Structures are given as structure tokens and as C-alpha cells.
Amino acid sequence: MGAITEPRPVLLILAVFSRHQAGLDWAQTHAESRWGKIALTSKVFLFDDTTYYEKTMGPELKKVFFAFERLVDPTELIE
């Protein structure tokens, strides 16, 4: 039987996509104001793995990942 332990802090990662660079920039600014400084940012790349979002967001979506500097308590993720 396993032992109950306190969860370790986790790395917060956010995936953002938009067809407008201004939308990606807005998301970065908003995310930093909410979760703190971004430690790593991926390259912006074309998100063409699915057409699921085309009806509501349009074609040629771009995607980027942000990893935050501050580790978070996993119980905070629900918020």
C-alpha cells in the first residue's frame, strides 16, 4: 500500500494559439500578470494538426508554449 505524501510543486506550462500575433502577445502579457515571469518560450509554429478550431477561430492558427519560472502547488491548478 502506498504512503500519503504532500504533492511536490510543478512546472506551469501554457499552450496558446491564435491566428493573430497580437493575440499571442496579449496572452503572454495576461499570463505573466496572472502567473509570473515566463522562463521559457517555444518558437511560434503553425498549428495545422486539426481543423477543429477553424469555424470559430479561422484558418492558419499559430501556437506557442510558455513555461513559467515559479513552480506552483498542484492544488492551485484547479483555480
Alpha plus pi helix count: 2
Helix content: 10-25%
Question: What quaternary form is this?
Answer: single chain
Number of strands: 4
As a whole number of angstroms, the C-alpha radius of gyration is 16 Å
Distance between the termini: 31 Å
Mean pLDDT: 93
Strand fraction equals 25-35%
Query: What class, by secondary structure content?
Result: alpha+beta
* Overall geometry: elongated
The main pleated sheet reads as: 4 strands, antiparallel
The run of helices and strands is EHEEHE
Uncertain stretches of 5 or more adjacent residues: none
Describe the structure.
- The protein has 79 residues and is α+β, with helices and mostly antiparallel strands.
- 24% of the residues lie in helices and 33% in strands.
- Strands 1, 2, 3 and 4 form a four-stranded antiparallel sheet that branches.
- The longest helix has 15 residues, at 21-35.
- It is elongated, with a radius of gyration of 16 Å.
